Amino acid sequence: MYFHIPFCDTVCYYCACNKIITRNRAHAEPYLENLFKEVVLQAALFDNKRIVNQLHWGGGTPTFLDCGQMSRPMAVTRQHFNLKDDDSGEYSIEIDPRATDDQTIRQLRELGFNRISLGVQDFDPAVQQAVNRIQSEAQTFAVLEAARKHGFRSTSIDLIYGLSLQTVASFG
Question: Which CATH number do you get for residue 85?
């Protein structure tokens, strides 16, 4: 299963994803209500005994949602689909280290996510400035440490080559 959470609080100039740029978390509410309706409609098409082995939240920035907003889609999904409770499925989420802290990582783990993908793109400050995606290595590594601490079994980092001001040497 894939859930697209299209919200971001800033625009990254390289991004071609379907997105809504806003700092107002309340703008996600109508989208979530429609998402819940879609979950119900899709659930009616599948055998409710069929187990969901893979679930992924992408975006946009799923961690744009606040703690309560993140809990509701997972609860609705569990209500209508057969999600694993034993951590043997692959339940992943894309996160923005700039919008994620230890508490968020703990909550994501409690919701059943066991794999995270961190959006980094590039650590070069000039490249980050050029693409409007400024984040420190310290922010990124703090999130990785939190993921280890809270028992995520898999992490990945998204890097992009070909961004403005990048060179082969700087990307290396």
Answer: 3.20.20.70
- pLDDT (tens digit per residue) in 126-143: 999 999 999 999 999 999
pTM score above 0.90: yes
Encode pLDDT of 95-108 as tens digits: 999 989 999 999 99
Q: Give residue 101's domain range.
A: 2-41+49-171
**Helix (H), strand (E), coil (C) string for the chain:** CEEEECEECCCCCCCCCCCEECCCHHHHHHHHHHHHHHHHHHHCCCCCCCEECEEEEEECCHHHCCHHHHHHHHHHHHHHCEECCCCCCEEEEEECHHHCCHHHHHHHHHHCCCEEEEEEECCCHHHHHHHCCCCCHHHHHHHHHHHHHCCCCEEEEEECCCCCCCCHHHHC
Number of domains present in the structure of the chain: 1
Q: Is-contact 61 116, C-beta < 8 A? A: no
pLDDT digits (tens, 9 = 90+) for 10-53: 999 999 999 999 999 999 999 999 999 999 999 999 998 999 99
